[in-house]
Amino acid sequence: MRPGATITVPEADYAFGAGPLRMRVEEVVGQATHGGERWAELRGHDVRPDGSVDPRERYASVRVDGVTVVA
């Protein structure tokens, strides 16, 4: 994951939200290990189903192993 990448994350692999996360990453704010799993705190913008980007900034904590980079 690096700034500019678009990622998808299943609902079970990020906190907090409902449904899968699709996000354009602006910054990896930090990383930590919890319960033996690596987590990253990300700052970015949601990517809508039509491919447009939500202008509102959001933060998400994601389990690194659950992330798929799509662009």
The rounded Rg comes to 11 Å
Mean pLDDT over the residues? 94
Proportion of helical residues:
under 10%
Order of strands, widest sheet = 2-5-4-3-1-6
Q: SSE order, as H and E?
A: EEEEEE
- Total of domains: 1
Query: Beta fraction of the residues?
Result: over 45%
What composes the largest sheet?
Answer: 6 strands, antiparallel
Q: Which spans of ≥5 residues are poorly predicted at pLDDT below 50? A: none
Q: In one word, what is the shape?
A: globular
- Number of helical segments? 0
Number of strands: 6
Structural class: mainly beta
The termini sit apart by 10 Å
Describe this protein's structure.
- This protein is mostly beta strands and 71 residues long.
- It has one domain.
- Helices cover 0% and strands 62% of the residues.
- The chain contains no helices and six strands.
- Strands 2-5-4-3-1-6 form a six-stranded antiparallel β-sheet, with no helix packed on it.
- Strand 4 (37-47) and strand 5 (53-63) form a beta hairpin.
- The termini are close together.
Descriptive key words:
71 residues, 6-stranded antiparallel β-sheet, mainly beta, 6 strands, globular, single chain, 0% helix
Question: Care to give the gist of this entry?
Answer:
0% of the residues lie in helices and 62% in strands. It is mainly beta and 71 residues long.
Chart the SSEs and their pairings.
Blueprint (H helix, E strand, L loop, with lengths): L5 E4 L4 E2 L5 E14 L2 E11 L5 E11 L4 E2 L2
Antiparallel strand pairs: 1-3, 1-6, 2-5, 3-4, 4-5
